């Protein structure tokens, strides 16, 4: 992987990048784009989390990248296998929006905030500090993590690009 | 992965007919509303990966105007009426009679008009479907968003999300004259609704 390489992370998918490659996931609504970064190795990881907990899974072969409680341990393991140290990792995340406001009561419709909550819980469990987040609201986001410097950029239709 | 254990092809045909009947009525309603002919393509029924659903309307990051409603009742599901920006502008022009939405900003009036169009179309789609199947189906209040297609459509995939990485989509494209796609009607029944739909239509499960 060389500088500027773009690695696309699909919905309910995860991947890692190093050597200046950029991880990107598009069109986050209620989903959460979580990134982990080891500044010493310049190694980054990204997960596009769709649902909070694998307890609700009814699929035969569980896609572990889909659920907050399984995606984070898997991403962590993938990064450790590349030499990352948990104590050095920092997390950033974006997404978890509530795109449609009208059905606030139903659990499905509150999925964005629940994804954010579950992601934070998992990070807390592994004692990985969440250093920046851009979550909530009612708009979609596309996010990128630059493995060269750990910069996390967020693009939305309304607000353009911002970096955290 | 296969959603239906047996007679999968036949069941897909039945769902195509479901889309045909629903969207046919909706196309008529749209045509009345705009006072000009509106055509529709033969619906496509596909069991496809989540990622590919947004590709149907220009990709995950494409900005679309979407009216979303949840279908309540015997066979619940999610319904989207999706327009790209150009066709939305033309529809508003036809309906409100003035040059609407020159830039990307939509006024309250325009948004409310689009939302009402979605409401009318979804209502006619569902009522014909309810007549055809004898099932009770009612739309919730429509909700409108102008945003990235991926972010919007992911809401319709949550029910399938716990089952796998694919969803069954009944997609009907509206055409205005010989112009390209005017809009899309997406019906994504909840996974549990298929057996009910098939039973109501006398299809062996």
Largest sheet of chain B: 8 strands, antiparallel
What low-confidence regions of chain A span 5 or more consecutive residues with pLDDT below 50?
none
Oligomer: heterodimer
CATH C-level name of chain B: Alpha Beta
Superfamily (CATH H level) name of chain B: CheC-like
CATH class descriptor of chain A: Alpha Beta
Task: Measure the end-to-end span of chain A.
Answer: 24 Å
Note the gap between the termini of chain B. 18 Å
Tally of domains of chain A: 1
Strand order of the largest sheet of chain A: 1-3-8-9-10
Q: What is the averaged pLDDT score of chain A?
A: 92
Question: What do the pLDDT scores of chain B average to?
Answer: 86
Keywords (chain A): Chemotaxis, Hydrolase
Enzyme class (chain A): hydrolase
Catalytic activity (chain A): L-glutaminyl-[protein] + H2O = L-glutamyl-[protein] + NH4(+)
Function (chain A): Probably deamidates glutamine residues to glutamate on methyl-accepting chemotaxis receptors (MCPs), playing an important role in chemotaxis.
Topology diagram in text:
The complex is a heterodimer of chains A (164) and B (205).
Chain A: E1 6-8, E2 14-18, E3 22-28, E4 32-38, E5 43-49, H1 68-80, E6 90-95, H2 111-125, E7 130-135, E8 141-146, E9 152-156, E10 160-163
Parallel strand pairs in A: 1-3, 6-7
Antiparallel strand pairs in A: 2-5, 3-8, 4-5, 4-6, 8-9, 9-10
Helix pairs in contact in A: 1-2
Chain B: H1 8-34, E1 38-40, E2 44-49, H2 50-55, E3 63-73, E4 77-83, H3 85-96, H4 108-133, E5 137-139, E6 143-148, H5 149-153, H6 158-161, E7 166-176, E8 181-189, H7 193-200
Antiparallel strand pairs in B: 1-7, 2-7, 3-4, 3-5, 3-6, 4-8, 7-8
Helix pairs in contact in B: 1-4
